Every structure is written in C-alpha cells, then in structure tokens.
Here is the input.
Amino acid sequence: MKLTFEGTEEQLDLLKYEFDMLLIEHGDEKLPSIAYLFHYGKKTRIASMLFTIFQRMQIDTPNNFDEILNFVVDDVDETAHKIHWHDGDVAIAFRRYIESKN
Here is the structure.
C-alpha cells in the first residue's frame, strides 16, 4: 500500500500536528511511523470498547463522544500498561471522565 499526500508543506505540517503523525523516510516516500499506527489502532480499539460500555448501559452514543474518547485514550496512555492494557483500563478511564465532570 502506498500512502501519498498532495498539498503544500504547510498543509503537511498542519496534518502532522493535528494527528500527531510522525513520518519516517522510506526511500523517496514518507510513511506513518509504527508509533502513529500503534496509537491509531489503540484509539480505534478504545472506541470499540466504549461503544460496548454504552450498549451495556443501554444508552445511545453521547454527543460529546470525541471528547470522551480523547480523555479515555489519554488516561489509558498515562495510567495503564503500555502494551498489555485491556477493557478494564478503558472502563476505569471512562469512570474517571464521568467523575471529572462532577
């Protein structure tokens, strides 16, 4: 799979900043680093786990889901094991989010 970006260097810098994407040189191409792919995959898995929590609570997906997701991802990154984290860590982080709003 070849990844390409069409735009100015300024747009690319903004993209790197917004998505915290670290690029590595591979020949004449720039590819997402393993760290970025790992983070993106982790965020996707956490989102899936949050949807499961919402289903168990029998609630619809909250309107501020992105805010919740970002909080939970940051909390899991800060408090859980870097590799062996699990759905219990996500549940604890979600509880911390709710507690932070009270």
